[in-house]
Amino acid sequence: MKCKRKPVRAILYSALLATGLVLPAAVATATAAQAEEVNLYSSRQPFLMKPLLDAFTMETGIKVNMVYLKKGMLERLKSEGRNSPADLILATDIGNLHNHDKAGLLQPITSTILSANIPPQYRHPDGNWFGLTARARVIYASKTRVKPGEVTTYEDLADPKMKGRVCIRSGKHVYNISLLASIVVARGVEGAAAWARGLKANLARKPQGNDRAQVKAVYGGECDVAVGNTYYMGKMATNEKDPVQKLWAQSVNIIFPNQNGRGTHVNISGAAVTAAAKNKANAVKLIEFLSGDGAQKIYAEANFEYPVKAGVALHPMVASWGTFKADKAFLSRIANQRVVASKLVDQVSFNN
Length: 352
Ligand code: FE
Prior knowledge:
By secondary structure, the protein is of the alpha/beta class. 45% of the residues lie in helices and 14% in strands. Helix 3 (46-60) runs antiparallel to helix 13. The relative contact order is 0.18. The structure holds fe (iii) ion.
């Protein structure tokens, strides 16, 4: 039987209204509208995000509180648990997004805007994370010591013809685990193991340094080819703080691997709504905004990356590297092979 009495909350509200301790509904709503906000944990740098977040606030009136976390986001979210203030995260590499997902820190969202703007291979099938910018993991080849057509595939890097000529960072780095995981998807575990073994046998030196350090080593003559993400080419070629990097960039060509086959491995930076989100709707709005035409152009250009949305113009330098065919394997599938890939790195003693 339904109770016809006035609910306790309504009585309390009337009483508080009478004493002036609460504001009438209309005023309260207006105040809430002014206080609309969203809390963001970002491993992407403030210089990159600020113009975009400012534009979002201008357009929607929603204030963005961004905490920049270069490292330790996963641990922080884990320790904060349900009390975390973060509504959404921005992270680079599918590996990091996947690890947050596997730790139960994310929640699925559905959005027709995100489904329309982001190709399915760059988002989680249930909406647990979404790619917003893309980067290809390519071969940087010496302009003078690598003949045209000599190296065209990831498989070539593991071919005996490249003995002593290859430089790459740690096999355990998140970028390389994702690359190896993509080879597990393409060629199976045995195929990927053979590739990792072959690549190790061809290394000019023990894996060390970051992506840029590999191009520096090509410039210095230590090796003829290196593996790295595309945006570093732009960062080196325009580096006014450390102009010697321009010489590193000038010494190499970018080769997009596997153009006659599965295509080049592409990774993402992306966003996800946290399981603890208290401003979920605003978090979704922000991700939708970042997937739109205007934001995509600014976001990708600022770091020499590729927009994920089709039809968005590229930075002229990024365009100068040429068009390429990307591996169409879903990143969610690749992410599921990361544990296998990591074990393979140990199995073949890649870093020793
Ligand atoms: Fe990077």
